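User: quick one, fold this
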Amino acid sequence: MLLTEEPMHGYQLMQAIADRSGGRWTPSPGAIYPTINQLEDEGLVTVTAEAGRKLVTLTDAGRGHVAERSETSTDPFAGFANAEPATDLRGLLEELHGATRQVARSGSEEQRTAAAKILTDARRSLYLLLANGSQTPEA
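Assistant:
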């Protein structure tokens, strides 16, 4: 659908999806590039090198494929239109990962043991949150 607007590089596709979903859906290169390869194998897109980057363009068959489904398919970004901005869990996870690596590298054995317990408790709390819907760390 995005490629009907203009040809894009893989990174542009990732950014466009993130922008249109309000940051709630940010595909990784590991999701985008295999999808592009599959679309190319199916003859729906062509991939050309441009300034060292791969430009993805819909083929006539690809435009036809999108047009055939335009009346029966829904806009995958419609559900994000009125959604609250996403909480940046990915950024928080990266910060936690950095702190964990620092403890692993330079912490004492006692600090590493304490960090392992904190991480175990955090994982458990996250699953409880999903199970109960409103689990807080204090509970």
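User: anything notable?
Assistant: The chain is about 55% helix and 10% strand.
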